[in-house]
Amino acid sequence: MTARITALDTFDIRFPTSRELDGSDAMNPDPDYSAAYVVVRTDAADGLEGHGFTFTIGRGNEVQVAAINALREHVLGREVAALCADPGTLNRDLIGDSQLRWLGPEKGVMHMAIGAVVNAVWDLAAKRAGKPLWAFLADAEPDWLVSQVDFRYLTDALTPAEAEELLRAGRRGRTEREALLRERGYPAYTTSPGWLGYSDEKLSRLARQALADGFTQIKLKVGADLEDDIRRCRVARQVIGPDIRMAVDANQRWSVAEAIEWTKALAEFDPYWIEEPTSPDDVLGHAAVRRAVAPVKVATGEHVQNRIVFKQLLQAGAIDVLQLDSARVGGVNENLAILLLAAKFGVPVCPHAGGVGLCELVQHLSMFDYLALSATTENRVIEYVDHLHEHFVTPVALARGHYLAPTAPGFSAQMHPRSLDTYRYPDGVFWAADALTEGR
């Protein structure tokens, strides 16, 4: 009997991170880190499932779950083997639903829902192949990888032929690089010391811990109050010394003029990059900031909504660092396009992570990029935040400031059943008890 997809189950998962100000920044002062979580089930004898999610910060997560549910009929009944052999077919079908496409197109809640479902299928495909996703992708033939990319709207910047050549060139020396990756891991930086709601004492303590843990870059949230930012940057720089990189992140707080003025005011602390200095949709604004604040680098990407905006940022010379997100765009397929664009333009990729499970996912994309495309980790780091990893079956592992290469098959997306039961909103164990407490 041909195995088929039999269910697409969704969960509204929320964690009360706002209570300790974990994740707080100038634009998002009280986030409750959340996941619109999806499980793709089949009737195959192997019993394997595909797990995926997209990240939100609390209110509205139910809207994101509803968007995933709207995609269910596109998934149910598909032949498992055919789907896993060519996830691009589902990606194109989901993006191509003409009525749902009106809600984007290819951006916002609907596009993030597509990413969650597509990523779950890649998780299933890698599990069926018995490989972690980074190896599943790195082992794939260049022409197959190119077939997974939607080149519509891209060919003025990157053609399929150019993409295949980049992938063929990127494979050279792969064996030696994989040995290094398995031994040493992939470089990381940490945002854990830098949340805006933390006291100077906590910032200092966590910055010292970051040094002890082997990190060579930290990041601070900025943008709410300039004098406060100057004080916090001074505290951090005194702790880490002159040789450790310190990035700063405004989380879209400023206009273009404010971004230039504020970044120049922080320049004495030698920030490595200014992240999200203005609206993620303002391509020309980022270009203006970049020209004005050099040699401070400009980085953005966690809220860039699709490959087309990334293309424009690169074409306009608007960014020094590209920060793709594993769950903001349409899943692995679109992130392959973004990695290829970055390689074509020679811009390093330093992914956004943290949140719920974003570290677990994006490590695979960076490791694939290193092995099969960019062939380097120079000036490349993956963000790391020490939150919520315990809820995942195969959480990230770090040593000496590096992500260690995952060994378990899949995309590292699967959460423990008890975590789903506890933090399901609003009727999970934690939230039900919390409601009773609030009602007293």
UniProtKB/TrEMBL annotation:
Instruction: Provide the alphabetized UniProt keywords.
Output: Lyase, Magnesium, Metal-binding
Catalyzed chemical reaction(s): L-fuconate = 2-dehydro-3-deoxy-L-fuconate + H2O
Under which EC number(s) is this enzyme classified? 4.2.1.68
- The Mandelate racemase/muconate lactonizing enzyme C-terminal domain is annotated at 200-296
- Asked if the keyword Amino-acid biosynthesis belongs to this entry, the reply reads no
- Asked if the record carries the keyword Lyase, the reply is yes
Stored Pfam families: MR_MLE_C, MR_MLE_N
List required co-factors.
Mg(2+)
| InterPro entries named in the record | Enolase-like_C_sf, Enolase-like_N, Enolase_C-like, L-fuconate_dehydratase, Mandelate_racemase_C, Mandelate_racemase_N_dom, RHMD-like
* SUPFAM superfamilies cross-referenced by the UniProt entry: Enolase C-terminal domain-like (SSF51604), Enolase N-terminal domain-like (SSF54826)
- Membrane spanning segments where? none
Q: What is this protein called?
A: L-fuconate dehydratase
Originating organism: Streptomyces physcomitrii
